[in-house]
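Researcher: Batch entry, complex prediction.
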Amino acid sequence: MNGVHDMGGMQGFGPIQREANEPVFHAPWEGRVITMVMGIAAWGKFGVDQRRYVREQIPPAEFLRMSYYEIWYTGLIANMLDAQMVTRAEIDSGMPAAGSAKLTPALMAARVPTFFANGAPKKRNVPDAPNFRVGQRVRAKNINPTTHTRLPRYARGRTGVVARDYGVYVFPDTSASGQGEKPQHLYSVSFEARELWGAQAKPKDSVYIDMWDDYLERV
Amino acid sequence: MDTTRRGFLTTAAGAAAGAATGQAYAAQADHDHQTLPSDMTLRVKSLESLLVEKGLVDPAALDALVDTFEHKVGPRNGARVVAKAWTDPAYKRRLLADADAAIAEFGYTGQQGEHMVVLENTPTVHHMVVCTLCSCYPWPTLGLPPVWYKSAPYRSRAVIDPRGVLQEFGVTIPDDVEVRVWDSTAEIRYLVLPERPAGTEGMNEEALAALVSRDAMIGVGKVTLARANP
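Model: Structure tokens for the complex:
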């Protein structure tokens, strides 16, 4: 979707504000939010693509006002509502619905080191012929889905060159809407900065963007 | 269900007004006299209590994950990988050819580092990394990203004005050097292998690792003879 999360090339956000000796978390609640997201993710009811998609659906003015972990907190609840893991009444009251059974958490403390070290790989060992080869000129499709996509607006319709073929990966556009993984080749595609931004860009500069087969067309 | 969810995204999100914004973090860090718990503190406590009561999360697992983020992952891990690549040519070849396997030799694997690619800076090419769509970042080697990396100013400008961004970080790239910006739009996570500074020829891996900053491994800094910070 053409949301405000898709920030590449936007202007007017001001200088980059860096913080000396920045802590990992600025308040304990931030650490609880990101780790609750991981603990809930361990149930396997929704993946990273669904998590990103709900955050993108936060209204733009709210999205820009909220801190990073407020966005995660809001998205976590939305994902759990969607997956029917909690109800709105439970969220509002902070109490489980009367009579609901207590479950055993999917991620117990003893399994955390393994859970973290294994990660959640998105590469798939399934046969899939690549549509493009390294060195080939390609164009990013001009698509404007109202659903989740990882094809940034600033690249749509632009021409680049396939720099690397990473192999077969889960396709987020279908994965985010529960329409399956649709594994396909993922490439790094290089775009000259002038192709993206015009004459104001330096002639030698470029942007490398990770793109799936379904984002690309022949030139 | 969707109306319930949408309703939550619109109205409950609005109730959080007044909590810190990303840009306010730096300023807020100076205000340690805050005595009342913030709205978000209370709301997150309420959510955790609900999820624990329902048996959806184990609070001890959350503690262990917080400990992982605060003490087990972070840029000191990435710095060790870089220092090894600087001192061991065979390791550097493995790292550039198959970063997953080479980084796994240190045990820095897992969440948000499942598919690693290492980009080597040279006198003619400078790489820098951004995620314009969210906050993708290699957790096992660099830890959680700093606020500026997740912020709108960096995400918006890194791709359209990389040299201006680098100037803000104190890095000037000559016009005859290529700047390549890597936008992490997929599940590949990028780590920049910075140039080894001159004058470090006699230094061992440990001493070299102490010079390697987080910013240099994102590609917005250069490694110098001064001890890395951050």
